[in-house]
Structure formats: structure tokens, C-alpha cells
Give the backbone structure.
Amino acid sequence: MSGDGNAGAWWRRLGRAGPELAAAALTLTVAAVMALAAFGNLTDFGTNQQFVRHVLTMDTTFGDPDLMWRAIDSPAVHTTVYVLIIGWECLAATVLLLAVLHWVRGLPRRDFARARALSTVGLLMVVLLFGLGFVAVGGEWFVMWQSEDWNGLDAAHRNLVLAVSALLVVYVRPSGAR
């Protein structure tokens, strides 16, 4: 069977590209999460706008007077922050999708420098959004963790772990590789 030899060679080549395929798959996964989050926020604007409003006004936290000075009651600020989040999600998704394109284009040449660079930028954008934006600012500064109804820390942590995991895989190199 002459096809078996070709299939074996194909599987060996695929095996050598394993780390890059894993990086591409994880980058694509995070891109899809960002694109779907942005799409959901755009098509159901009001729901998560209310989330942002409640977090910033701190109206469902314990109401500790030592913390409530941090609250922001301006609807214009709430909407601006929400629009910036959506814009950031759209931009991150775009950068990550471009990275996936470069992962795929790089396979025949084994040239992944641009793919790694774009993945790094996009994944760090996700880390900043969920780590800095949601966990640090929302969770700690605006004490989102105190709210039973408007606490997005579980979702933020899931997205943060996914992005950091993808970022680590982007830099995995097989032994002996440069």
C-alpha cells in the first residue's frame, strides 16, 4: 500500500508541528472567546452594561463607608468603560485571529516568529482585560467579590487561566529546537 508510507510521513510532519498546532489551537480558542464575548456584548448591550454599572457604583457590595468613596455614579463613565471593554475585546479577537493565520501560514516554512509575536500581543491584551481590569480593578478596587449578584470573578479567572495557558504554550519549544 503506497498510501501508508505517505500517511506515515504526514503524521511524522504533523507530530513535529505539534507545539505550533497546540499554540494555534489555543490562540484560536481564546480568539473565539473574545469574539463571542464582544458579539454578545454588542447584541445584548444592556445586560452587561448593567453589570458594569453595578460594579462601578458598588451598590450591591457590603456598603462599607471606608470603601464607598471609590464608587462611580456617572452613567456616562459606566457606558464609556463598557464601550472600552467591548472595543478591547474586538481588538484582542482581531489580533488573535491574525496570529492564527500566521500560525497556519508558518507551518510549511516552520517560521512562527510573527505568529508568536501576534499571539503574545493578543493574549497579553486578554490578560490585561481579565487580570488587571476584572480581577484587580473590578474585584479588588470596586470590591466586586462582595456582590452576590454582580460578581464576575469566576468568569474572569476562567478567561485569565485560558489566556495564560495559551501564552505558555505559545513559547513551548520541542527539545533541540532553536
Notes: Residues 134 and 156 are 6 Å apart (CA to CA). The mean pLDDT is 92. Residues 75-106 form the longest helix (32 residues). The helical segments are 2-16, 18-43, 45-57, 75-106, 113-141, 153-170.
